[in-house]
Amino acid sequence: MAGLELLSDQGYRIDGRKATELRKVQARMGVFAQADGSAYLEQGNTKALAVVYGPHEMRGSRSRTLHDRAVINCQYSMATFSTAERKRRPHGDRKSTEMSLHLKQTFEAAVMTQLYPRSQIDIYVKILQSDGGNYSVCVNAATLAVIDAGIPMRDYVCACTVGFVDETPLADLCYAEEGGGVSSLALALLPRGGQIALLQMDARLHQDHLETLMEAAMTACKGVSKVLDEVVRQHLQEVSVLTGE
Amino acid sequence: MLKSKTFVKKTRSGGVMKVVREHYLRDDIWCGSEVCSECKQESTVLQRDACMESNLCSYPHYLLPDTNVVLHQIDVLEDPVIRNVIILQTVLQEVRHRSAPVYKRLKDIIHEKEKHFYTFTNEHHRETFIEREPGESANDRNDRAIRVAAKWYSQHLKASDSDRLKVVLLTNDRGNKEKAEEKALLVYKFEEYIKSLIANTELVDHLALSNDDKNEISSSKVLFPEHLPLSRIQTGIKSGSFLQGTFRASRDNYLEASVFVQGEEEDSTEVLIQGLQNLNRAVHQDVVAVQLLPRNEWVAPSSVVLQDEGKAKDDNAEEEEEEKALRVSAAEAARKPTGKVVGIIKRNWRPFCGMLNLSQIKESTRHLFTPADRRVPRIRIETRQAASLAAQRIMVAIDGWPKHSRYPNGHFVRSLGSAGDKDTEQEVLLLEHDVPHQAFSQAVLSFLPKMPWAITPEDMAKRQDLRHLTVCSVDPPGCTDIDDALHCRELDNGNLEVGVHIADVSHFIRPGNALDKEAASRGTTVYLCGKRIDMVPELLSSNLCSLRSNVERLAFSCIWEMNHEAEILKTRFTKSVINSKASLTYAEAQMRIDDTSKNDDITKSLRGLNKLAKILKRQRIEKGALTLSSLEVRFHMDSETHDPIDLQTKELMETNSMVEEFMLLANISVAQKTFDEFSECALLRKHPAPPPSNYDILLKAGKSKHVEIHTDSAKALADSLDVATVDGFPYFNTLLRILATRCMMQAVYFCSGMDNDFHHYGLASPIYTHFTSPIRRYADIIVHRLLAVAIGADSTYPDLMDKHKQSALCNNLNYRHKMSQYAQRASVAFHTQLFFKSRGILNEDGFVLFVRKNAIIVLIPKFGLEGTVFFDSKDKAKANPNLVFDEEGPTLAVEQHTFHIFDKVKVTISLDDSNIQHQKIRMALIDPVIPGVSVPAPDVEPQAKKPKLDR
User: What Pfam families does the record point to (chain A) (predicted)?
Assistant: First the structure.
């Protein structure tokens, strides 16, 4: 028989979640000492490492310097062992370039770049294991890393993918669901103000459904933001205990 | 709780890939029982007093079947007696994986509220999930999962209530049963349980035979060679030593079949298979693997008619003789590639209709069943109600065909009613033509609009209000599914506005829901004599969608502005609301047009339409549209018994062609519009030009009466048909047109992105589609949706724009359409038989339509009936007359008389009911008189017996 049943009549998805439930999110901040900020985030089986350097002086060509704000430089890559089939992934392939660009746009909207004119902030994200929702996991990991680096942001940026199956939006798609011919949408949100940092969709979807899908995505993003907030508070507590304050 | 699921999968390129998936376990999955106090469920499915009276279980209990029970015994599970059943997710998934039809049936049962079937998501339940142990096969793991879930249920129910409620595991697997007993579970074999049910003995007959039972049924002698395992078949096909194809049994000879092997492109071959051993238990329509025999063993198809008349015992001696009779040495040229079946790739068994042959032994419970379809072998079944089933049409499903059994083993599914009965025969012909005709399921009905239904202000806002227009509908008498209505009025600028209003079915049937899927699978409404098998539920077909008079209805309108020469100046499509002022029959409309004293709006509108239609028709014929003819008959039914009392060929009136003209125009306009908008995915209808060889018979027929027929183009054909007349033979032209119709190809639906020949030959239109009957054709619904998207009145959905999916849909629609036509013809044939049965013997005039080697085919225009007059008798005692067949004429000389096409003859018609399953009309020649061939005219029964018709 063709295909997987993405949503059973009883309302369970392939992995046993309900339509609106997120995967288990686990995160740690400050995993590397050398970088200015770093974080490791797991969302189900998708695992990402984010590292932030900066803000520092412009490196390389000085011509890219902006005089009123900082330049954000993002680089996205996938580990060779991140998918089921081991594959060499050269830097600068189209997919990762696009992803880097999306990350850059997302963080330009969130980081208060005007505080650091003529400087540069580097964000490096690596997918260690891929199981769907790579973009959102990268955004969430990078948010934690930026916070770890102490760079002021307007708000957490939380991202989530949402798919549309049988007239029902499914939150936080896993790889099997993404592959099942679902029209999916990725949304990065600044949850407190409800501003959208990035919205991306490259599948066909009727505009009548767009609103329900966006709403589901926003709810999911707010869910993610709660988890991230907890992680940050936890981390701060640990750090303050260590420093003895 | 989180579990990770890891398994290894083979990729398409042949590599091995490890797939890791998350698997969440939950503790919020409820048991679904009314009794339970622990689970915080909102609604329950399983009842408190789940009573099925059984000898084995005297207490209330829930049933928990395993996968094989569901797969094989779905017929029993569907019975209303079986209620309160727990279907585990494991079982549901396995069924989904193994058999799509059973899965669909199971889902339908689950949706039915009265059945109380509950799906328990055990794979995600914290306490019932189990992991596969090392060395354990997937099947064993699933069996264990089922046992664990059963255990959990019994403990859970015990804990929540000390009520005597229990869970009974049903399995046919001995190993599974033993293991379950070790775990102290209540477990029975399915047969055991069903047999224990009190007062439901008839359920036992529905039981499919399980593996152990098969052995005892037949002798242990091996009759057939073993089938090869699938892996060896696959390697064989790859290496070219085997061929894969569809098995088609011969209708006339049970020892012969052909396998249709689909090759690359046009290169497909047929492999002949002869003899029981070589047929090797393949059944009609199975996909099989065949091996070609060496060239010196090739044979020619035999022309002998052989019917399997063998008795229940294995009468080998007789069979060998029959097989020998087949091997008549044939000329080298006539030999065909011959092979033998080595394995079955896919069984295509469906339940078969037919009748029971009672076993000679009175007390025996095993009987042979003869299917109505001659291509299907007889089936051995076990039943205790043989005596009551003997005179009935029944349905039987095949369970298996062991290698030591002469016949396949099967089980009784249900009885259709007594043979020869009208309802029963109707059911049989529906089943045999694969026409879905069950009542609509609850899931489908749930998508109907709630009554009382009214047009809402939102609907109104989106639609154009055309209620003020004088719209009326013209249909055949007794029509309740009115899908088209018309209007015509003069505009201020002197032009005419003509509107065709089609029921807006796509408003009610939304894409993708159960109602839509059901309609798509049915494809078309099937009209039988005195019965209609609806494509959509009656509420829609005869009420909400039907454009009845003096009610407000939603419509999809196609409105043209025309001048008085019927030239289209403007075309407009809109969703609308209309209020039909009158629903007329063709005759009523004709009377209004002809009655000069009438001058109301409706009549004026009709006259305007009629005038334009005549111009349109003339234009169409000038372009080369064909006017073909086929005799359609109408039965006058007795209003109480519904037996046919008279039979009449359908008359055509001017108004018929008036409505037809505007429907054609609407279809063409819509086809053009949807194609302009969606060049890749418009659903169109084409009618390919027939290959020139198809016309041979028509040319010869013309020549026999010295009339030249040109077939270079549709236009030439139409013109030459128009002038083809013979003095003193007024019926000649109609006969020619009937013949021309037989030369045509089938018109088919197709998706514009998948084809580039759009031409409709018969209508001489470059593009055509079906738009005007959405109530009875699914194609029209799709066209409505496309058009609605094109004018921005409705939203689109992915499948509509996917040309591959649409192409698949077209294939189904074409198939359903073809089958519905066959079913219609079969229904007419059956009613004709009924009619002749009541009439006894009749003498009628007829015309020779075809001349064959040993027979002539005679058409009786009065009844639109065709029959064959054979000149060689099967009776060997009688000498055959001297027959000389001339291919060129074609003519057939019988003794001294020579028959030509279109000769007038007189025949006697009677019903041959010697074989109750296959009754047929028999014709015999009266005039011309040929000694030894023709029969004396029998006395026609006195007319007084005939009931008076009140018309």
Answer: RNase_PH, RNase_PH_C
